[in-house]
Amino acid sequence: MSAQPDGPYGPLIPMPDLTPDALRTAVARIAPSRVPALTQHLFEATTNAQQTQSLAPLRAFVHSWAVFVAIERHPERAARLRELEQIVDMDEQDPTAAIREIQQIREAAEAEAGL
Which of 111, 101, 96 is nearest to 81 (CA)? Predict the structure, then answer.
C-alpha cells in the first residue's frame, strides 16, 4: 500500500494494492456498507471472465473499486463528489461545471490508484 498526503490529517487509509482482496479490505474499513456490492461485482466479473475467457471483466472490477477507494479514503473529496452528483441529479442548474469537476475528481483518483 502507498500513502498519499491529504492535508494535515492525511487519508483515512493508505491506497491498497490493486487486488480483489486488498480492495475488499479497504472497502470494509472505509465504507463497510459497500462490501456486498463489491462482492457481487467480483462474482459477476469472475463469472464473465470465465464465460468470455477474458480478463477484461476483472480489470474493470479492479478499476472501478480502486477509483472508489481512492475517492472515499479522502472524506472531503468523497463529500464533494456527492455534492456534485446531487447537483447533476437535481437538474436545477446547469450541470456543466459540476460534471467537469466530477471528471477531475475521478481522473485524480485514477492517477492516485496508478490506473
Answer: 101
**What pTM, to 2 d.p., does this model score?**
0.85
Distance CA 56, CA 58 (A): 5
Q: Give the count of alpha carbons within 13 A of 6, CB side only.
A: 22
Q: Which three cell numbers stand for residue 17?
A: 494494492
Q: Under a CB-based contact definition with an 8 Å cutoff, are residues 70 and 113 in contact? A: yes
- For 31-68, letters b (16+ CB in 10 Å) and e give beebeeebeebbeebeeebeeeeeeebeeebbeebbbb
pLDDT digits (tens, 9 = 90+) for 54-98: 999 999 999 999 999 999 999 999 999 999 999 999 888 889 999
Query: What's the CA gap between 72 and 79, in Å, rounded?
Result: 9
What pLDDT sits at residue 44?
Answer: 97
Residue 84's SS3 state is helix
